[in-house]
Amino acid sequence: MRSLIVEDDPRIADDLAATLEASGFFVERAADGETAWFKGGTEEYDVIVLDLGLPLMDGLAVLKRWRAEGITIPVLVLSARGTWIERVEGIDAGADDYLPKPFRMEELVARVRALVRRAAGRAASVEVAGALALDTTRMTATLAGRPITLTPLEFRCLAYLVLHRDRPVPSTELLEHLHGGEDGHEQNAIEALVARLRRKLGPGVIETRRGFGYQIVEG
After folding, report:
1. What is the pLDDT of residues 109-135, one digit of tens each?
2. Is residue 135 within a helix (H) or strand (E), and if so which, with residue range?
3. What percentage of the chain exceeds 70 in pLDDT?
4. Is 46 left (phi over 0), alpha (psi -120 to 50) or beta?
5. Which has fewest Cβ within 10 Å: 28, 36, 103, 112?
6. Collapsing DSSP states into helix, strand and coil, what is residue 6?
7. Fold topology of 2-120
8. CB distance 117 to 123 below 8 Å
9. Where are the domains of the chain?
10. How far apart are CA 176 and CA 182, in angstroms?
């Protein structure tokens, strides 16, 4: 899953990035409101963690602009301003969730995962597709009850396919959400990644729909 952290405090941003990366997210960062507004409006993210106290443009203004422009990416707002009035203001501006500072990193990760699941039309932390079961909290996978050993990148790829199993996922979309479209990552890297997953999962789990992309088989 591809995430954007918008936080101007380097120490907090480092902690957030390390936590989300350890939880299976590809992380990008922005340290001011203008950069955040641009990245959120031009890039594809699965979730955004947004601090309100930002330089150049405050987080609430950024959020209002995104929503006015039709940007529907799930947003978790962080703020030291924790009164109920301020929380209501954040939700009314378009936030999907609100977490006052200080907070536990475990709670932040749980809330971020919930936002990603809901955005994909899913609710449970354990996703089941045929014989495949994926636990997005423990970052584990089983096939017919048998544990499957996955690297962090393989898990992220499989999780994205499972969360979006109702449709084929183009390789370009996988590239964006796994690597952020970074230079040096090509389409053949996605093909190699899917090939490794197929060797571990066996045939009939990940289908290639030519011209459309990859899709998890649920039958």
Report:
1. 999 999 998 988 887 788 899 899 999
2. strand 132-135
3. 95
4. alpha
5. 103
6. strand
7. Rossmann fold (3.40.50)
8. yes
9. 2-120, 126-216
10. 8
